[in-house]
Amino acid sequence: MQADELTVKQLGPCAVDSPLMRAAGGWNFDFIGDERRVLMDITTQPRPDCEGLSFEQAGPRRKIFFDPKNVRAAILTAGGLCPGLNDVIRGIVMELHYWYGVEVVYGIRYGYQGLTRDTQWPPRPLTMDEVEDIQAHGGTILGSSRGRRDSGEMIETMQQLGINMLFTIGGDGTSRAAHELACEIEKRSLPIAVVSIPKTIDNDIQFVYRSFGFATAVEVSKGVLTCAHVEAKGAPHGVSIVKLMGRDSGAIAAHATLASGDVNYCLVPELPFPLEGEDGLLAHLRARLPQRNHAVICVAEGAGQHLIGDSGRRDASGNIKYNDIGLFLRDAIAADFKQHSEEVNIKYFDPGYTIRSTAAVSADSIFCSDLADHAVHAAMAGKTDVVIGYWHGVFTNVPMAAVVGRKRRIDPRGKLWRAVLSATGQPGHWGLKA
Amino acid sequence: MQADELTVKQLGPCAVDSPLMRAAGGWNFDFIGDERRVLMDITTQPRPDCEGLSFEQAGPRRKIFFDPKNVRAAILTAGGLCPGLNDVIRGIVMELHYWYGVEVVYGIRYGYQGLTRDTQWPPRPLTMDEVEDIQAHGGTILGSSRGRRDSGEMIETMQQLGINMLFTIGGDGTSRAAHELACEIEKRSLPIAVVSIPKTIDNDIQFVYRSFGFATAVEVSKGVLTCAHVEAKGAPHGVSIVKLMGRDSGAIAAHATLASGDVNYCLVPELPFPLEGEDGLLAHLRARLPQRNHAVICVAEGAGQHLIGDSGRRDASGNIKYNDIGLFLRDAIAADFKQHSEEVNIKYFDPGYTIRSTAAVSADSIFCSDLADHAVHAAMAGKTDVVIGYWHGVFTNVPMAAVVGRKRRIDPRGKLWRAVLSATGQPGHWGLKA
Amino acid sequence: MQADELTVKQLGPCAVDSPLMRAAGGWNFDFIGDERRVLMDITTQPRPDCEGLSFEQAGPRRKIFFDPKNVRAAILTAGGLCPGLNDVIRGIVMELHYWYGVEVVYGIRYGYQGLTRDTQWPPRPLTMDEVEDIQAHGGTILGSSRGRRDSGEMIETMQQLGINMLFTIGGDGTSRAAHELACEIEKRSLPIAVVSIPKTIDNDIQFVYRSFGFATAVEVSKGVLTCAHVEAKGAPHGVSIVKLMGRDSGAIAAHATLASGDVNYCLVPELPFPLEGEDGLLAHLRARLPQRNHAVICVAEGAGQHLIGDSGRRDASGNIKYNDIGLFLRDAIAADFKQHSEEVNIKYFDPGYTIRSTAAVSADSIFCSDLADHAVHAAMAGKTDVVIGYWHGVFTNVPMAAVVGRKRRIDPRGKLWRAVLSATGQPGHWGLKA
Amino acid sequence: MQADELTVKQLGPCAVDSPLMRAAGGWNFDFIGDERRVLMDITTQPRPDCEGLSFEQAGPRRKIFFDPKNVRAAILTAGGLCPGLNDVIRGIVMELHYWYGVEVVYGIRYGYQGLTRDTQWPPRPLTMDEVEDIQAHGGTILGSSRGRRDSGEMIETMQQLGINMLFTIGGDGTSRAAHELACEIEKRSLPIAVVSIPKTIDNDIQFVYRSFGFATAVEVSKGVLTCAHVEAKGAPHGVSIVKLMGRDSGAIAAHATLASGDVNYCLVPELPFPLEGEDGLLAHLRARLPQRNHAVICVAEGAGQHLIGDSGRRDASGNIKYNDIGLFLRDAIAADFKQHSEEVNIKYFDPGYTIRSTAAVSADSIFCSDLADHAVHAAMAGKTDVVIGYWHGVFTNVPMAAVVGRKRRIDPRGKLWRAVLSATGQPGHWGLKA
Questions:
Q1: Residue B32: is its pLDDT beyond 80?
Q2: What distance in Å separates the CA atoms of residue A144 and residue A368, rounded to the nearest whole number?
Q3: What ipTM was predicted for this assembly?
Q4: Is residue C25 very low, low, confident or very high in pLDDT (cuts 50, 70, 90)?
């Protein structure tokens, strides 16, 4: 990566005094200058591939691009549900209103669908009253959807509504579409800022150290693992299989495993485990059950693709639809024990939708309001085609192009996986290259 | 039913003074005499089929059958998990110890399997220390299993261990087996009491007004329905289907529907709903979604058998294995909307194991300790072949034969179903005979 | 008590067909006739003082007094908060709307204050939309207040608004005021029904077998007791004191003690415990701590009045303001240990407001909607000066005069207290007459 | 601060191969070298006072000081309770066992009291079995206490037990005592490592970016604030005051305010608010209540010391005992409204012990196991007089002397306080120097 790939685009020069300069009774805040940057490698001996690389620090600018009284903002949520969506929506409306005095904020319904020409779902004005209590509820008051729409068509809708500031909250697909939209806007030289708040319950976005909803997902998952443990111990040779989210990264599975303390096998996409053979999961289970009577398996949905292959189908966001590794494991274990004439009682848990739709825990809730805060400051300063990142505890403005399509994964040599191995006692060499 | 069918069997005369007479510093309690009976119909104008019928009130007797110092008790849990099992186990151990001074209590492992001749799982002595905190955990510390075992063989095991008091905690199958066991014991004229605490998360046992674990099941189910509502509202034309327990009775589905307030269709075994046709569920959904954008369906696992039939298989307890009505509905709705070229986004929730394995809420926890208390008093008084019932707020001793095989069901003309109709707004005539 | 004291007043003859007769597509429900009554003593050998006594069963009548299209209903909540208030409000609005088609329902603000002549808080119309989600929140959307108001003045306000049906939700003071109001209405021969839903978090209303909010209060209290246990064990000679609600009855303290399993001393108003002396609480604590290192005390706010006396003050509802037994115990224990030169670390918990203001658990929530349902049926049938009772699992219509001023208390010889003694191991003779 | 103040002490050279080099089936992990350091200021333009300053990165070393088979470790917890203590204890035992094969771990009872000569509480061996499930419970299985003990005496006790590795988990006072102990050990040239895991529920330790238990404290506090909001809205002119922990820093109050969204005034030690006068809290309340009917005040225990002064007393840890700002505010507001003849209904919440004694949420739980992991690696590598820090997401080894006595505080110009102002709408100039 080159340093200039981390340079944030700007709609134009910042000539307006920020209202924060005189906010709250003569008080002013720590403004951040564009030149303030956070190192990619924060140690005294940076890795060669990080040398010279840094992120623009996010936060309020003393001079801003938009005159607040001319701003007409819009917010949309796209992709799957994730705890905290309403917190982000609420935060954006509140920050725009409270610090900048922006009064016109549209909620776009059902993701990009709400920006199409003949949408059935017209935008919904978002007032302070309307967003006041929404953070107590899971999901998104705007609705969400998958799939892209034509950038030109969406720009026309925005122009009809007079929108000059768009906040998109969504995952990789959403950011990709937002990036295309921003590029098309740039091509047309329109003064419309596009700022993305990255959403991934899997916590696997590159340059986003932590993503909102993840803490909540782990908390709920831990509760399910406790139930799975109870079920496994409740029957002779009881085996519980819990499938958790994680298409490309087992971050939720690994963290839930640590939080729970009850998992015996944590299976993640990053480390393909052997199923058959002397060293395979089945043989391990057959050895374990006569001694310990039970086993709990926590499997990320993207794990074991070497065993089952993908389904060849894609969802509307373009994500590959995987075959269900949880059901596959259930059947494989049942068949194996039957073949060896041993009793086994398998319980399968698939709590995905319950995890996604829960209201955010406090840590996520606060993090969401921070993200919203920084997104608003970025937009007001005329930054565009930008994602709000979080790097070593500092919020950053990162060009969308630098984030899109890059996934963060569990490092099998790092402390997270080391902790998983000691928590589960599972074989440490599984999935490693010989 | 004849009055004598409600007469409880007795191992022999009660000649021992109850330790409760001098318990707790000279104090004694309200003893209950065997002649104290609770009316089956508690109104001034009893229904003809209840006339003359009453239940023996449970509780401590002044004179008891067993000399506490000779008692060797055993407890077993059988069938599926249910919130509160550990509470009942703990309660029995504590009451035996505290009020009667019984010191020997065995925990039989994995249901009736633990009473077979060559069981891999020998009984585990249950001390006060061991049961002290178990109520904080779901499941059963003893493990459970399905299926019957030979009564003679189990009696031999009990005799080897010197057990003269057996508490079984389980559902209809367990009670049936306990009844057989008690009959065989009677045939052999052995002084062994068999007392059953009825377990049915579905709350469908006849003469058991309320069963333990039900309040917890409804509480957890309500949480899942909230998530289902969030998911349904989160996508265009979102439909959430939540399958809840309830093979023969929709009690959990109905109560969770009332507690939630978010359900639009509550489908139960007692009222077969139409799927196709002008008045069918599919037509209703197709009319609803364009207007309300979302729908939540709560379906009991035993509902819709007229549509899918059973699988022809039975589990180890002898229960019919139903085809999955939830998956069936999911596919039927998807196909129907596809055929009508309308968008629909279906989310399916199957939280059964999570509901079963949760620790009991306080109300259930207290109810469990009450059940345990009355089971211990019944056993000490030499009652046998008996189930602890709960009738209009009073604990009762009911002969097993009167309970086994009888199910309680939702009355479509009663207040529960009336409340469901007003909560959902679903068609009130569904499932009624014309 | 005489049988006619349990006869319910009626505004006039019921000449209107209930809409439930043709509700829900030709279907009709189990109507209840006024002659249907529930026995006060439900056993085969009733106690002499219950002989001949019974309660009118509540529920929908085939013929009703009010023509639904002329009904203008009002709801008010008074006294302290209690989990479930919003559930009752919602239930009343929904049942009036759904089954009877009543469209005008006023929410009276801040209890009887909202019916005074020059109230600052005008009534708020309650629509279905407004009450849709209120059960998810604790407290009351109407606000509450203590204190009585002039009946005549309130009647005038009601007449100005055209209100002919008033639902009051409140405790003993509220019911007393409602009774006075109903009497004044009767005196003036006005066709206004007054129906009360009894509220007492302490669960101590006579003829009300179970009161709403109690299950929730116990659940929250149990959580606090768990914390108290942790704190007590966390310090050398740790003592935790938890004060729970219960002015006249220790029902919450006793049930929370059972649900928790962690309490060593449960102190209730019904059984005055000795503090000083060889057999007193202090001596017991001094003996216990060197052995067990910790102790948890759960004390009802009305306990120990023989030790501290009341404060001589009354709150706006006329309730005696007690001195704080929790603080008294804290200081007494600290002084005693200091005097004996022994270490003690006391932690004091006073969670009252947190308990009151929590949203209802499912069991309470459903119970509230049942209460609302029966209150609506009673009012529509022209019953007045009436409280909705709950007797052995059946909802009843009880004249207010029969309920007001009568408190239910823990029976020291009954099963609840017996269970508390075995759960705590505390001296069983405390508080008993020699 | 000088760079060498951040240099960590070492018991001696590291000559033993770490077992992690051959752990888990031939696999080895990312070892960290002592030269790897994290910058204090992680931006491209460091602040002058951070120039040249960095922290040693914590983690496993390839070569270690102790031969695992000779290690006898001990763990103690001191000071007030904090969510996560049991997680840390469990983590230390597990990491010592799993990665290094250390089998002897003592649990010291009740803090430093357990290391005194004639302690009543002998140490308790900690096995894997004993710590298996302790993380599910709040508090500390070891007990805790306040106050220092003589270093020499404690060293003798350790020597008698053969302890050569001490983990202390505690706050500023505990670290100070651990530092003295380590200095005394150094003076005596003993090969005993002393490693401290910093505990402060207030999250106010310098160089410790985030402290364990904080996320849990905020989560529980948020729940109490919700109740406070309900109570405030439930009465005419309702005011709820919630006192939260925070002697020197309002971090919990500020974060809970953000998480809740229901707070109108957040009062913290860092910003002394005016009480009286036109711009004071009382005048603000009097203006607010007639309009909004309610107010929620969240106050850190250390706030308002300019108004009430300290009590002049100190607890056993040497912390100043503050007068109770919550009670002071309650009385001041009541008096002020009385004087102005306006109604006010105040509810006071003091949930401190409930917050401290709750089991850790998942995020804290995982963080605790990370802290334990790094503490174990530090101790095995012979590092001593060291605290495990957390800096911009990286675990660090920090000399105790650099941490003790330094507190982190809310920056009134930073993003946290900015967010509090927009969440509450309270005056932004309160507490600022003119």
A1: yes
A2: 18
A3: 0.94
A4: low
State how far residue B244 is from chain A, nearest Cα, in angstroms.
Answer: 14
Mean pLDDT computed over C269-290: 96
> Do D162 and D123 meet the contact criterion of CB atoms below 8 Å apart?
no
* One-character DSSP codes across D128-183: HHHHTTGGGSSS-TT----S---HHHHHHHHHHHT--EEEEEE-HHHHHHHHHHHH
- Interface test with chain B among C35, C43, C279, C298, by most B beta carbons within 10 Å: C43
Fold classification of B3-211+360-403 is: Rossmann fold (3.40.50)
Cβ atoms D106, D123 nearer than 8 A: yes
Is pLDDT above 60 for D25? no
Q: Count of A–B CB contacts within 8 Å? A: 89
| Of the partner residues B230, B357, B358, the one whose CB lies closest to the CB of residue A81 | B230
Which residues of D are known catalytic residues? Answer: 202
CB contact under 8 A, D44 and A23: no
- Domain D3-211+360-403 and domain D214-357+412-424, same fold? Reply is yes
CATH code, residues C215-357? 3.40.50.460
pLDDT band, residue A85 (cuts 50/70/90): very high
Spatial separation of the C-alpha atoms in residues B65 and B18, rounded to whole Å: 9
Most confident of C122-126, C320-324, D172-176: C122-126
For domain A216-357+412-424, which CATH number applies: 3.20.20.220, 3.90.1170.30, 3.40.50.1390, 3.40.50.460?
3.40.50.460
**For residue B317, pLDDT beyond 70:** no
Give the integer Cα–Cα distance in Å for A1 and A54: 11
CB-based contact A418 D258, cutoff 8 Å? no
C423: closest chain B residue by CA: B94
Phi-psi region of D244 (alpha: psi -120 to 50; beta: other; left: phi over 0): beta
* H runs (alpha helix) in D195-264: 214-233, 251-260
List, as ranges, residues 66-95 from B with C-beta within 8 Å of C.
Answer: 90, 94-95
Using a CB–CB cutoff of 8 Å, tell me whether D129 touches chain A: no
Q: What spatial distance separates the first Cα and last Cα of chain B, rounded to whole Å?
A: 30
> C274, C290 in Cβ contact below 8 A?
no
Q: Where are the domains of chain D?
A: 3-211+360-403, 214-357+412-424
Give the pLDDT confidence of B111-126 residue by residue, as tens digits: 999 999 989 999 999 9
Our answer to whether residue A202 is catalytic in this structure is yes
A38–B contact, CB cutoff 8 A: no
Q: Please name every residue paired with D37 in a beta bridge, in sequence order, or none if there are none.
A: D56
Cα–Cα distance for residue pair B291/B284, rounded to 1 Å: 11
Name the residue with tokens 């049926």.
C377
From B49, B129, B172, B202, the catalytic residue: B202
Instruction: Supply the pTM of this predicted model.
Output: 0.96
How do residues D214-223 score in pLDDT, each as one tens digit? 999 999 999 9
* Nearest Cβ partner for A259 among D37, D366, D392: D366
Cβ separation of B231 and A351 shorter than 8 Å?
no
Q: Please state which CATH class domain B215-357+412-424 belongs to.
A: alpha beta
Residue C288: CB partners within 8 Å, gap ≥ 6? C264, C295
Percent of chain A with pLDDT over 70: 96
CATH tag, D214-357+412-424: 3.40.50.460
User: Are D237 and D345 within 8 A, CB to CB?
Assistant: yes
How far is residue A268 from each of residues A197, A417, C229, D115, D307, measured CA to CA in Å?
Answer: 26, 10, 39, 44, 56
Q: Where are the beta strands (DSSP E) in A250-399?
A: 265-267, 294-300, 310-314, 320-322, 345-349, 383-384, 386-391, 394-399
In angstroms, the CA C361 to CA C357 distance is: 12
Look at C231 and D357 and tell me if their CB atoms are within 8 Å.
yes
Touching subunits of B (3+ CB pairs, under 8 Å) are A, C
Out of C113, C140, C293, the one facing D236 most closely (by C-beta) is C113
